[in-house]
Structure formats: structure tokens, C-alpha cells
Amino acid sequence: MSPETATDVADAALAAAVRRLANTQVLVIGDAMLDRYVYGAVDRISPEAPVPVLKVENVLAVPGGAANVVRNLAALRVAVAFVSIIGDDEAGGDLTGLIGNQPGVEPWLLVQGRRITTLKTRFVAQGRAVQGHQILRADREDSRPIHPKLADRLLKIARDAIGATSVVILSDYRKGVLAGDIPTRIIAAARKAGRRIVADVHAPDYHRYAGADVVMAAARDLAAATGLPAGDDASVAAAAAVLRERHDFGAVLVTRGEDGMTLVDAAGCQHFPAESAEVFDIAGTGDTALATLGAGLAAGLDLRLATRLANIAASVVVGKIGTSVVRESDLLAAISPHAGALRKIVSRDVAARLAERWRRSQWRVGYTDDAFDPLKPGHIHLIEQAHGACDRLIVGVQGDAAVRATKGANRPHQSEAVRAARLASLPAVDLVIVDTSGTADEIIRLLRPHVVVKTSSEARDAAAAVMQEWNGAVMLAEMLPEIASD
């Protein structure tokens, strides 16, 4: 078998595994949070102190923590039961609404009086010099253990839900939901029912998760828990083996940032190199990997195959700004970037319907446009910036007549069909529309994106006048010289 054929076979097996994730059943128990993103432009430094002044343009709230695990599972079309605790505050109410709108999710969000719902507010600068960078994060939280009576009620609901699901995911961010012996009691109930348990533990006290089938651990927590180094492949494997044996874990999956992941189980050790070409934002990466791993095990995938998918999912989500999700189409595109690319080219009306569906699923919709005649490296740079600012990116390509009208009778160099096909082949692009009639304002109003990315201050200002109708954001892209002069 040739290397090319072997690659095709491997890709086909991965794609088949991705398609098995939908319609599985998973129970998630853990710390629900609200992630709030405040987007704006930074053009000056405050005269009061040496800090940037953020001119707020848009605010977006999405589920975080264990709730982000749920959001990722819903994006993969998994049926989810979610058990957690929130406070009787505004953030708790917002989180309840966001979770309730997720397709296929059965939420059990218990309210504890006078408790603060964990809220992480990130301030993100979208100015030319600090493209998509966080400049500050402000947290409000109550990490005390939940009330004992509420803990008993949580355990009762969890035991009932275990019987209706295939895998139990425990997401412990140390915010009080999984405090004390709650994980031990849940694991005992799951094992009695014959269910697999996957735990993501953000602390070194792994003894409370003894007997779990898979435990995800950051390399730094692994080192703290075992007292062993965890800086390279060999030391990570050795420390993970010690942790696995010490607490009777079925497997330990170590997340290692730019070094990928390492899985240690009864069959030995396997390293999974990071597959991301560029990192925009690591927020929520572990949640995405955890959701994909749990869905894979619920679908009956081999642990190594499920881990491979989790690693691919993590590589996709780090290419986006903010707490994002990964869908089946994202995974398939990452596995086979050119498969079915032409299906991305749709009419304006179809794009508008899909954009509306994405908004209802709490996905951030982005839009950018240009002639792309021909597609150059600078255009790729533009598209990657736009992709990083949203969950779903729609790209408009100017039709032949429009290009001819603005650039002369000898243009375009490539037909609109060729230019659209080249754009559709890019993994960062979710939809392509050919603009053969109407104005840019009409298209923006039809799509109603959360963010529009423009290449000049004049175009930015024109789009901003439209976007303000629904409080949308406009981002000025960092341009390479070849685009600015085209």
C-alpha cells in the first residue's frame, strides 16, 4: 500500500469515527461558569495610569467550565444531561438561558441561595496593534463546597441520570460542585451501573477520583501530584504511569499544550503531537478535548482513537478567539481539508438561513469579503484573522461584473467560480457566497453577523454604521502590503 493510499484509509477511518459521535448519550457533572467577552478597540493609553483604554464595541456571553463541555457535546449532536449548581444572581440566570437553548441538552441547574455564579470576564482588544489579544481577565467566584443538602440532591439526580447515559464526565474546576467525597460517590454509582467515567481534574488531589476509567491531567498538576518531573515525553509517561497505578485509573491522559497529549493505559504509552498550526486562544481547549473524548467513548470508539479525535478537536479550537466549540464539520475538515469543499458555496438566502441557525446555537458568526483575484497569501492572512474572531466564518467573493467595474476591463484574472472554489477549500472558511448583485450593506443586513472583518478604515466605518443596528462588532484586519496595494 502506497503512503498516499494508507493516508486515505486512515483519514476515512477517522471520518467514520467522527460520524459515530452524534446521537450518543453523555452525563456531565461539574462546575458551571459564565464566560463573558468584552470586545473593543485600543487606540490610546490612559492618562491616569499606564494602561490601555478599551473602547467597548461588543459584549458576548457563552457557557464556560463544565457548561462549555456541554456546549461542545451539543455541537457534536450528543444528547446531554447536565447537573450543576448556580447562584441566585444575574450570571446564574444568563447561564440558565444559554444552557437551556442548547439542542439536545437536559439541564439540572440547582440554585443555591446567596451563592455567586462563577463569572469570568475577558477584555479583548481588536485594535491594529493588539489583534484579538486579551488585555485583562476579571473573575467573580465562590469556590466553597456546595451546601450538604444540595449535594445530596445533586447525587440523587446524578444516580438517576447515570442509567440513561453511556458515559459520565466529571469536570472539576475546583469551584465547589465536586468537593469532598462527591466524586467518589458518583464514580461508585457509575461503576455499579456499568458506565465509564471520564474526569478532568484541575488540581493535584486525584485520590478523590480513584477508579475512574480516564483522568485528564495537565502536565503541571501531574508533576505536583507525583513529585516527579513532567517536562518531556519520557518523564511525562513515567509520572502518568505512577499516577495511574496509585489511584487505580484505567488511563491517564496528560494535556501538554504545544507538546500535544500523552495517553498512558494498560497497553502502554502513546504520544499525540499537537496538530495546530497557529494558536489564537487556549480558552476552553481542555473542555473541547474532554467533550470529544467522552463522546468518542460513548460511541464505543477505542480509547486511542477517541484520544486522537480529542487531540484534533483541541487543535481546531485553539485557532479561534474565545471559548469556542468544534462541530462534526470542523473535525471532518481538519481530517480531510479538501473533502466536500464545493458544498460550502451557497446562495445568499441559504447563507442567511445557516447564519440564523448558528446564532440560535450561540455560535459567533463572522463575515469578510474581497475580490480575491487571485487568492494570495495576504488573503489567507485576512481569512485566518476573521476565522479567529468567530465560530463560523462566511466569506463573500465579488462577482466577475463587480470586479470588472472596479478594477478594469482586463479583470478578473480568475472567474468567480474558480475564486469561490479556492476559498471553499480553506479549512478556516465555513461558507462562501458570490456577490453578483446588491451592495455590501445589503449582504451584512441579510446575514446579521456578530463580527465583520474589513481591510480598510473606510470600509470599517461603513460597515460599523450597519452593524450598530444589532450591536455587532467591526474588526480592522492587519493587512499585508500585497493586499493593500492590490
Account of the protein in words:
This protein has a 9-stranded mixed beta sheet with strand order 5-4-1-8-9-10-11-12-13, with helices on both faces. The chain starts with a helix and ends with a helix. A hairpin with a 2-residue loop joins strand 12 (261-265) and strand 13. The longest helix is centred in the N-terminal third of the chain and has 17 residues, at 3-19. The protein is of the alpha/beta class. The model is unreliable at 1-9, 127-131 and 277-281 (pLDDT under 50). Helices cover 39% and strands 26% of the residues. The protein has 2 domains: 16-335, Ribokinase (UDP-N-acetylmuramoyl-L-alanine:D-glutamate ligase), CATH 3.40.1190.20; 341-484, HUPs (Rossmann fold, 3-Layer(aba) Sandwich), CATH 3.40.50.
Features:
486 residues, alpha/beta, UDP-N-acetylmuramoyl-L-alanine:D-glutamate ligase, Rossmann fold, 2 domains, five-stranded parallel β-sheet, 17 helices, 39% helix, globular
